[in-house]
Design goal:
Strand content: 15-25%
Radius of gyration: 33 Å
Helix content: 40-55%
Shape: elongated
Number of strands: 11
Number of helices: 12
Largest sheet: 5 strands, antiparallel
Structural class: alpha+beta
Amino acid sequence: MQVTETLAEGLKHEFQISVPASDLDAKADVKLVELKDKVKLNGFRPGKVPVSHLKKVYGRSVMAETIDQTIRETNTQIFTDRGFRLATEPKITMPTEAKEVEDILSGKSDLTYTVSIEVVPAIALADFKSFSVEKPVVEVTDADVDEAIKRIADQNRPYAAKAEGAKEGVKAETGDRATISFKGSIDGVPFEGGTGEGIQVVIGAGQFIPGFEEQLIGIAAGETRTLKVSFPKNYASEKLAGQAAEFETTATAIESPQDSVVDDEFAKTLGLESLDKLKEAARERLVAEFAGATRQKVKRMLLDRLDEAHRFEAPPSLVEEEFNLMWNSIKAEMESGGKTFADEDTTEEAAREEYQKIADRRVRLGLVLSEIGEKNKITVTDDEVSRAVIERARQMPGREKEVWDYYRSNTNALAQLRAPIYEDKVVDFILELANVTEKKVTREDLYKDDDAEKSAA
């Protein structure tokens, strides 16, 4: 066997391999001997079929199998001997001319092929003990608890029949709750899921598609209106997305919001023993919320530090793949929302350049985290994945079995679930080595970067 490296350009390598026909023939004969005891041919006793006859019957298929095995074994040896870690599957170029292929399969000609690969560069990991990370810490105040309970009270405020006005009668305003029944149609034809009976709508809450609730302003109990709206282009149902529709809508009741009295009785309506218990629950929820925000902020800082400390050429094919995933998603989102790059105060060229940088960063960080995990034997157990599946199922009440069955039968979905668990375990490993200091900050400071990102988006 002869191996010649024909290309060594950055992370890209190409080899031309030539395997003598005699070597292939010898390997094929071994397979034919093994086959002798397994096949049954008319006119021959079991195990007594001559290899020469087997070669006439099965020679081509056995040679094809031999060639496939030889290529796999040869490639593995080439990559192992040179210490290559592949970034993508190797690209193999085989002879295509009919006579040449026939000569190889019949053992008359040597096998010559090329294999092109892209490798992962050697990554020199930083000394994580030299990393300094400042962890923001927010103390939950009584004011925070009071604000949280006010939000809960607003979300659970009672409604009562609206008192009639002097002349206008009872008419709905923003903030009122209207009980309605409706029948939807597109081009005069009713559509599935377009009817509702006794549906309660808080006007201005944004529960319905854009334009629907606004047209309920001024409606009176017993009044029927035809509401004209258009489904968003990114609506969940493809049949309805972007479609103009009409809803014949009748209001049966108009109610106005009432002030909530936050006391023990209010707490009991939420399933808690008392107002003190409600405050305890609100405080615990805020502690968990702030801890989650702190975790994300620390993780972002650590990833930034890893990015700065590990500058190397990322495999171009992986970067291109990551970029295409992001770019296709961005384009689809913009098209569904009817937006252009000008609306985002940028150009397509500038946006492509920016996402190319993001793709490069993501690939490099992914390789660094993988290298850290591999060198320090960090793994994700099946139990950890199962707990993540259970947590996903809990988030979808009534569909728990459906979620469980989906993950149990979908290896790709399980891999996507495993990836963030692995990433978090590697992050925790680094944080144990790094110099982490705490800094008390306000709630506003904790969320400041997140709010800025939302505003930019």
